[in-house]
Amino acid sequence: MKDGPGTLLGGSSLVVEAKGVPHPNAATVFLNWYLSRPGQEIYSTVWGIPSRRADVKVSTVPAYTIPQPGVTYLDQYREDWYLNVRPKLQQDIVAALGGR
Length: 100
Description:
The protein is mainly alpha-helical. The chain has three helices and two strands; from the N terminus they run βααβα.
């Protein structure tokens, strides 16, 4: 919306290493590749979301999801937002809908 703050997508992936793996250095090798430009290009292409890497540009990622310089974005993933702001907004929405 033109009159509201921008908003960004939240994280959608998680990388964990299993305990007691036979090749513990394999996780380091994988993460180095995953965070590299080629790894992030594949990630962005598959998920259709922008990489945090500025040098990764994927044509299939919708332009409206790419952060723009100079825009103040609404951070809905801060602890304060999630614990304090969000519940109040939910209450306001329910009240505006007649308490349903």
